[in-house]
Amino acid sequence: MGSCGLSRNESKVYRALVRCGSSKAGKIAKEAAIDRTSAYNSLKSLMERGFVSYVTIGSTKWFQASDPRVFRDELSAKMEELSELLPALEREYASTKLPSNVRLYKGVRGVKTVLEMIVNSGKPNRVFGSENQLDEFMPAFSAKFKAQLEKRRIPTMNLVREGRPFRQTRLRQARFVPLKTESPAVTNIFGKKIVIIVWSDPPEAILIDNETAADAYKEYFDFMWQNAKPQKAGGGAKF
Protein backbone atom coordinates (compact mmCIF):
# COMPACT_ATOMS: atom_id res chain seq x y z
CA MET A 1 0.00 0.00 0.00
CA GLY A 2 3.06 2.22 -0.29
CA SER A 3 1.54 3.76 -3.43
CA CYS A 4 -1.32 5.06 -1.24
CA GLY A 5 1.12 7.19 0.71
CA LEU A 6 1.29 5.01 3.82
CA SER A 7 4.47 4.10 5.66
CA ARG A 8 5.31 0.44 6.12
CA ASN A 9 3.94 0.36 9.68
CA GLU A 10 0.84 2.34 8.73
CA SER A 11 0.14 -0.16 5.96
CA LYS A 12 0.57 -3.08 8.39
CA VAL A 13 -1.77 -1.49 10.94
CA TYR A 14 -4.47 -0.67 8.38
CA ARG A 15 -4.36 -4.18 6.93
CA ALA A 16 -4.54 -5.66 10.43
CA LEU A 17 -7.67 -3.62 11.13
CA VAL A 18 -9.26 -4.71 7.85
CA ARG A 19 -8.62 -8.36 8.76
CA CYS A 20 -9.69 -8.13 12.40
CA GLY A 21 -12.42 -5.52 12.32
CA SER A 22 -12.93 -3.30 15.37
CA SER A 23 -10.02 -4.03 17.71
CA LYS A 24 -8.01 -2.78 20.66
CA ALA A 25 -4.52 -1.41 20.12
CA GLY A 26 -2.81 -4.43 21.67
CA LYS A 27 -4.50 -6.85 19.29
CA ILE A 28 -3.71 -4.60 16.34
CA ALA A 29 -0.02 -4.49 17.28
CA LYS A 30 0.06 -8.29 17.57
CA GLU A 31 -1.77 -8.84 14.28
CA ALA A 32 0.48 -6.32 12.50
CA ALA A 33 3.61 -7.88 14.07
CA ILE A 34 4.97 -4.57 15.33
CA ASP A 35 5.57 -3.21 18.83
CA ARG A 36 2.79 -1.37 20.66
CA THR A 37 4.48 2.03 20.48
CA SER A 38 4.83 1.79 16.70
CA ALA A 39 1.22 0.62 16.46
CA TYR A 40 -0.01 3.60 18.53
CA ASN A 41 2.00 6.05 16.43
CA SER A 42 0.64 4.55 13.22
CA LEU A 43 -2.93 4.59 14.52
CA LYS A 44 -2.54 8.26 15.44
CA SER A 45 -1.28 9.25 11.98
CA LEU A 46 -3.96 7.14 10.28
CA MET A 47 -6.68 8.81 12.34
CA GLU A 48 -5.34 12.26 11.44
CA ARG A 49 -5.73 11.38 7.76
CA GLY A 50 -9.18 9.87 8.18
CA PHE A 51 -8.14 6.28 7.44
CA VAL A 52 -8.96 5.02 10.94
CA SER A 53 -11.58 5.99 13.56
CA TYR A 54 -12.32 4.82 17.09
CA VAL A 55 -15.00 4.61 19.72
CA THR A 56 -14.51 4.49 23.49
CA ILE A 57 -16.30 1.69 25.28
CA GLY A 58 -15.83 2.04 29.02
CA SER A 59 -12.25 3.19 29.31
CA THR A 60 -11.03 1.29 26.22
CA LYS A 61 -10.56 2.58 22.69
CA TRP A 62 -11.73 0.31 19.88
CA PHE A 63 -10.24 1.19 16.50
CA GLN A 64 -11.93 0.67 13.14
CA ALA A 65 -10.55 0.94 9.59
CA SER A 66 -12.32 3.35 7.25
CA ASP A 67 -13.76 2.04 4.00
CA PRO A 68 -10.81 1.32 1.62
CA ARG A 69 -12.44 3.55 -0.97
CA VAL A 70 -11.14 6.48 1.07
CA PHE A 71 -7.75 5.89 -0.57
CA ARG A 72 -9.28 6.30 -4.01
CA ASP A 73 -10.99 9.50 -2.92
CA GLU A 74 -7.71 10.90 -1.54
CA LEU A 75 -5.79 10.01 -4.70
CA SER A 76 -8.51 11.60 -6.84
CA ALA A 77 -8.28 14.78 -4.79
CA LYS A 78 -4.49 14.82 -5.15
CA MET A 79 -4.73 14.28 -8.92
CA GLU A 80 -7.21 17.14 -9.20
CA GLU A 81 -4.89 19.38 -7.20
CA LEU A 82 -1.92 18.34 -9.35
CA SER A 83 -3.88 19.06 -12.54
CA GLU A 84 -4.48 22.59 -11.30
CA LEU A 85 -0.82 23.12 -10.32
CA LEU A 86 0.84 21.45 -13.32
CA PRO A 87 0.45 24.26 -15.91
CA ALA A 88 2.09 26.80 -13.59
CA LEU A 89 4.85 24.36 -12.63
CA GLU A 90 5.57 23.61 -16.30
CA ARG A 91 5.81 27.34 -17.08
CA GLU A 92 8.21 27.89 -14.20
CA TYR A 93 10.28 24.86 -15.21
CA ALA A 94 10.54 26.07 -18.81
CA SER A 95 11.57 29.56 -17.71
CA THR A 96 14.36 28.34 -15.42
CA LYS A 97 15.58 25.34 -17.41
CA LEU A 98 19.14 25.67 -18.65
CA PRO A 99 19.38 26.08 -22.44
CA SER A 100 21.52 22.95 -22.53
CA ASN A 101 22.60 20.23 -20.17
CA VAL A 102 24.41 16.92 -20.00
CA ARG A 103 23.07 13.95 -18.06
CA LEU A 104 24.46 10.49 -17.35
CA TYR A 105 22.25 7.41 -17.17
CA LYS A 106 23.59 4.11 -15.85
CA GLY A 107 22.56 0.52 -16.43
CA VAL A 108 19.97 -1.17 -18.62
CA ARG A 109 17.20 1.03 -17.24
CA GLY A 110 19.17 4.11 -18.24
CA VAL A 111 19.62 2.84 -21.80
CA LYS A 112 15.88 2.17 -22.02
CA THR A 113 15.15 5.69 -20.79
CA VAL A 114 17.23 7.45 -23.43
CA LEU A 115 16.03 5.22 -26.27
CA GLU A 116 12.43 5.87 -25.26
CA MET A 117 13.24 9.59 -25.68
CA ILE A 118 13.92 8.89 -29.36
CA VAL A 119 10.52 7.27 -29.79
CA ASN A 120 8.72 10.00 -27.87
CA SER A 121 10.45 12.76 -29.84
CA GLY A 122 9.07 11.52 -33.15
CA LYS A 123 12.14 13.01 -34.85
CA PRO A 124 14.38 11.26 -37.41
CA ASN A 125 17.28 9.43 -35.78
CA ARG A 126 20.83 9.44 -37.13
CA VAL A 127 22.98 6.59 -35.79
CA PHE A 128 26.64 5.71 -36.07
CA GLY A 129 28.91 3.31 -34.22
CA SER A 130 26.35 0.54 -33.77
CA GLU A 131 27.76 -2.98 -33.57
CA ASN A 132 24.36 -4.60 -32.84
CA GLN A 133 24.90 -4.34 -29.09
CA LEU A 134 21.24 -3.58 -28.41
CA ASP A 135 20.19 -6.81 -30.12
CA GLU A 136 22.82 -8.79 -28.24
CA PHE A 137 22.40 -7.41 -24.72
CA MET A 138 18.73 -6.38 -24.69
CA PRO A 139 17.00 -8.49 -27.38
CA ALA A 140 13.44 -8.18 -26.03
CA PHE A 141 13.66 -4.41 -25.64
CA SER A 142 15.42 -4.10 -29.00
CA ALA A 143 12.49 -5.76 -30.77
CA LYS A 144 10.03 -3.52 -28.93
CA PHE A 145 12.08 -0.40 -29.69
CA LYS A 146 12.22 -1.15 -33.42
CA ALA A 147 8.50 -1.88 -33.50
CA GLN A 148 7.77 1.46 -31.83
CA LEU A 149 9.94 3.29 -34.36
CA GLU A 150 8.02 1.63 -37.18
CA LYS A 151 4.67 2.38 -35.57
CA ARG A 152 5.57 6.04 -35.08
CA ARG A 153 6.99 6.12 -38.64
CA ILE A 154 10.33 7.43 -37.39
CA PRO A 155 13.07 7.16 -40.05
CA THR A 156 16.54 6.01 -39.04
CA MET A 157 19.76 6.63 -40.96
CA ASN A 158 22.54 4.24 -39.96
CA LEU A 159 26.24 4.61 -40.74
CA VAL A 160 27.47 1.04 -40.47
CA ARG A 161 30.98 -0.37 -40.45
CA GLU A 162 31.71 -2.34 -43.62
CA GLY A 163 31.25 -6.06 -43.06
CA ARG A 164 28.43 -5.66 -40.53
CA PRO A 165 25.10 -7.26 -41.50
CA PHE A 166 22.14 -4.94 -41.80
CA ARG A 167 18.56 -5.47 -42.89
CA GLN A 168 17.09 -2.42 -44.56
CA THR A 169 13.43 -1.41 -44.38
CA ARG A 170 11.51 1.52 -45.78
CA LEU A 171 12.26 3.52 -42.63
CA ARG A 172 15.67 2.02 -41.75
CA GLN A 173 18.35 3.01 -44.22
CA ALA A 174 22.05 2.18 -44.06
CA ARG A 175 25.30 3.28 -45.67
CA PHE A 176 28.70 1.79 -45.04
CA VAL A 177 32.01 3.29 -43.95
CA PRO A 178 35.46 1.67 -44.25
CA LEU A 179 36.30 1.24 -40.56
CA LYS A 180 38.14 -1.80 -39.23
CA THR A 181 37.78 -1.34 -35.47
CA GLU A 182 34.58 -2.12 -33.60
CA SER A 183 33.09 0.74 -31.63
CA PRO A 184 32.04 0.33 -27.97
CA ALA A 185 29.92 3.50 -28.23
CA VAL A 186 26.80 4.22 -30.30
CA THR A 187 25.75 7.79 -31.07
CA ASN A 188 22.14 8.78 -31.75
CA ILE A 189 21.26 12.27 -32.98
CA PHE A 190 17.61 13.31 -32.91
CA GLY A 191 15.83 16.62 -32.55
CA LYS A 192 17.93 18.86 -30.30
CA LYS A 193 19.60 15.96 -28.51
CA ILE A 194 22.58 13.65 -28.79
CA VAL A 195 22.68 10.32 -26.97
CA ILE A 196 25.93 8.37 -26.68
CA ILE A 197 25.51 4.82 -25.37
CA VAL A 198 28.69 3.21 -24.08
CA TRP A 199 28.32 -0.56 -23.95
CA SER A 200 30.42 -1.13 -20.85
CA ASP A 201 29.41 -3.37 -17.95
CA PRO A 202 27.01 -1.99 -16.90
CA PRO A 203 26.17 0.17 -19.93
CA GLU A 204 26.04 3.96 -19.63
CA ALA A 205 24.21 6.57 -21.66
CA ILE A 206 25.22 10.23 -21.98
CA LEU A 207 22.48 12.66 -22.99
CA ILE A 208 23.55 16.01 -24.45
CA ASP A 209 20.56 18.35 -24.66
CA ASN A 210 22.03 21.17 -26.74
CA GLU A 211 20.61 22.42 -30.03
CA THR A 212 23.89 23.88 -31.29
CA ALA A 213 25.80 20.66 -30.61
CA ALA A 214 23.03 18.54 -32.17
CA ASP A 215 23.02 20.68 -35.33
CA ALA A 216 26.82 20.33 -35.61
CA TYR A 217 26.60 16.56 -35.22
CA LYS A 218 23.83 16.39 -37.83
CA GLU A 219 25.92 18.38 -40.31
CA TYR A 220 28.91 16.10 -39.77
CA PHE A 221 26.72 12.99 -40.02
CA ASP A 222 25.07 14.17 -43.25
CA PHE A 223 28.48 14.84 -44.80
CA MET A 224 29.56 11.30 -43.91
CA TRP A 225 26.27 9.93 -45.22
CA GLN A 226 26.74 11.58 -48.60
CA ASN A 227 30.22 10.09 -48.91
CA ALA A 228 29.44 6.61 -47.55
CA LYS A 229 28.69 3.55 -49.66
CA PRO A 230 24.99 2.82 -50.24
CA GLN A 231 23.17 -0.22 -48.85
CA LYS A 232 24.50 -3.50 -50.17
CA ALA A 233 22.22 -6.25 -51.36
CA GLY A 234 21.39 -8.91 -48.79
CA GLY A 235 22.66 -8.60 -45.22
CA GLY A 236 21.52 -9.66 -41.82
CA ALA A 237 18.77 -8.55 -39.51
CA LYS A 238 20.53 -6.33 -37.00
CA PHE A 239 20.00 -2.73 -35.93
Note the topology.
Layout: H1 8-20, H2 25-32, H3 36-48, E1 52-57, E2 60-65, H4 69-96, E3 101-106, H5 107-121, E4 125-128, H6 133-137, H7 139-151, E5 156-161, E6 172-177, E7 185-190, E8 193-198, E9 204-209, H8 211-227
Parallel strand pairs: 4-5, 5-6
Antiparallel strand pairs: 1-2, 3-9, 4-7, 7-8, 8-9
Describe the biggest sheet?
A: 7 strands, mixed
pLDDT averaged over residues: 87
Secondary structure category: alpha+beta
pLDDT below 50 for ≥5 consecutive residues: which ranges?
A: 233-239
At CATH level 3, the topology of the largest domain is: Endonuclease, Chain A
| Cα-based radius of gyration, to the nearest Å | 28 Å
Instruction: State the fourth-level CATH superfamily of the largest domain.
Output: Endonuclease Chain A
Shape: elongated
The domain tally reads 2
Order of helices and strands: HHHEEHEHEHHEEEEEH
- What would CATH call the class of the largest domain? Alpha Beta
DSSP summary: helix tally: 8
How much helical structure, as a percent, in the residues? 40-55%
| Strand percent estimate | 15-25%
Q: Report strand order across the widest sheet.
A: 3-9-8-7-4-5-6
- Report the span from N to C terminus: 41 Å
CATH architectural category of the largest domain = 2-Layer Sandwich
Question: Could you give the count of β-strands?
Answer: 9
